[in-house]
Structures are given as C-alpha cells and as structure tokens.
Design brief:
With about 260 residues, the protein is α/β, with parallel strands linked by helices. The chain is built from seven helices and 13 strands. The chain has two domains: about 90 residues, 2-Layer Sandwich (Nucleotidyltransferase, domain 5); about 150 residues, Nucleotidyltransferase, domain 5 (2-Layer Sandwich). The strands form three sheets. It has a six-stranded mixed β-sheet with strand order 8-11-10-9-12-13, with helices on both faces. A five-stranded mixed β-sheet has the order 5-2-1-6-7. A two-stranded antiparallel ribbon has the order 3-4. The chain starts with a strand and ends in a 7-residue tail after the last helix.
C-alpha cells in the first residue's frame, strides 16, 4: 500500500492507497485527518498513525511507499525520521523539481507550495488545461492552468478560520466564532453579524477573484478542494466540481510519475 500525507498548517491529511503491480491505484481506500502540532515528535505522530490503522483493521506492515506534500518545513525532518524509524523506508517529498511532464510559467516554480503543486497536477491529469483550482484551507489558494497545460500562478487569500481568529485577537469585544452559513445577511447578535461578514464576505471574495481570472484566461473547469469547499461552493455557481481528495491524488500521481510506473499526466 501507499501512504500520501498532505502536511498543512492546521491539519495533516493522510490518504491510504492500494497498489497493484507496483502502481498506486486512484481513489484512496481511507482518508484520516489529524491536527498539525509542530512540537510533536516522530514517535508521537507514529502512535497516532498506528492507532488509525489498528482501529480500522488496516495492516500497517503492508505500507511500502510514502510521499509527502508539506508546507510546514519544521515537520519534514520529523516525518522523515518517522518513516525511516518505523518502516525502514525513505520518504518522497513533492516539489517543483519532481513534477515530471508538468510545465511552470517563468518565475513561479520555486515559490509554489507543495500542496498547490499537487492540486494543479491532479487537476490537469483529470481535466486537462483551462482549470482554476481553489483550495479552501488555512489560506485559500487559487491556482490556474492555461489551455496549453502551463501552470500560470494564481492568488492567495486568508482563509475564513484565519479571519475569524484575527477578529477575536484584535477586537477585544468580539467573541471567538466559527464560519457557518447564516440564515440572512443582517445579523441580530454579535455572533450572527460576524458569521454574516465571514461567510458572505468570503463568498464575495471568491466570486470576485473567479470573475477577474476568467477575464485573463480561458476557463473550462473550476474545481474546489479543501475542508470548507462543500460549505462555500453551494453559494458559488461557477464552482462545478468538488474533489475533497484532490491534493492526495496529486501526491499519488507525482510519486508514480517520478518512479516511472504511472501513465497519468
């Protein structure tokens, strides 16, 4: 089996994939999520992983290959140690240099995060060029692949969780709240007012960026992924596809292509 890990600033998403004749099969058998804790050791993360496998009756000894897309550099060595210590394997890290067959526009390849690389590789593999990928995570990222299959770049905005935390942090009288879809835009209580601003303001941000991007490129598909995708997409008719596991699929594809046993891309 193959284990893909998407290490983000808030959560670590773990996808377990089946394998056949050395090739990783699409669609994860199981997806887990755990909190990102930068101070956690390799032994502590290993314990969490082992428990996940145990309670769902998966044999951890059958995992033969590992690949990671990480935007938390301080945890790279932790997971490298984990895989070496508990599995006797070497971990594969996604970056712009190992995306075989994928083209970056001039100037953006070195700065693009591993999760964004995985997103656009997966989107291009599945749908071809002319895609906008919106990843609703800690930050909300917009990534664009033109009709020729070239990654153009995109936009980065604060995610709603960050915005909610900043409101609570910088305004003493505003309570801590989470984003949810309110019944109406005019809130009666402070919490309702905050939820309206967070939700509808966030929807407006996404719509405006989509509209501007569509003026700058030919768009065939708009794809959403990430934890809040399903909550927001219902308000945005331009989003036609929601793929929660897009980043994991991109990790799978890049690993397979780099190891010469995957015909995707």
């Amino acid at each position: 089996m193959f284990l893909a890990l998407d290490i983000g600033n808030t959560n670590i998403t773990v996808g377990l994939f089946g394998m056949k004749n050395g090739k990783v099969l699409p669609n994860p058998l199981k997806v887990w999520r755990m909190s990102t804790v930068k101070e956690q050791t390799s032994d502590e993360y290993a314990t969490i992983l082992m428990n996940m496998f145990f309670y769902l009756d998966f044999d951890v000894k059958k995992v033969s290959d590992f690949a990671v897309a990480s935007v938390v550099p301080s945890l790279n060595a932790v997971f490298e140690e984990l895989v070496k210590k508990y599995f006797g394997k070497k971990i594969f890290f996604i970056d712009n240099k190992n995306c075989v067959g994928f083209i970056f526009a001039k100037g953006n390849s070195k700065e693009t995060g591993a999760d964004r690389i995985a997103d656009v590789v997966a989107a291009y593999s599945i749908y071809g060029g002319g895609c906008i990928v919106i990843d609703f995570g800690t930050a909300t990222t917009f990534d664009c692949i033109d009709s020729k299959g070239i990654y153009m770049g995109g936009a980065i905005a604060p995610g709603p969780t960050i915005s909610a935390q900043l409101l609570n942090l910088k305004a003493d009288q505003l309570p801590r709240t989470e984003m949810r879809k309110p019944l109406k835009s005019i809130g009666a209580t402070t919490v309702e007012c905050m939820q309206s601003g967070l939700y509808f303001g966030y929807v407006g941000l996404v719509k405006e960026l989509i509209a501007r991007m569509k003026k700058e490129m030919e768009v065939k598909h708009i794809i959403a992924t990430g934890g809040l995708a399903s909550l927001v997409a219902s308000e945005i008719k331009e989003i036609e596809i929601i793929l929660p596991d897009l980043t994991l699929e991109g990790i799978r594809i890049i690993w397979g292509k780099s190891n010469g046993n995957n015909k995707d891309l």
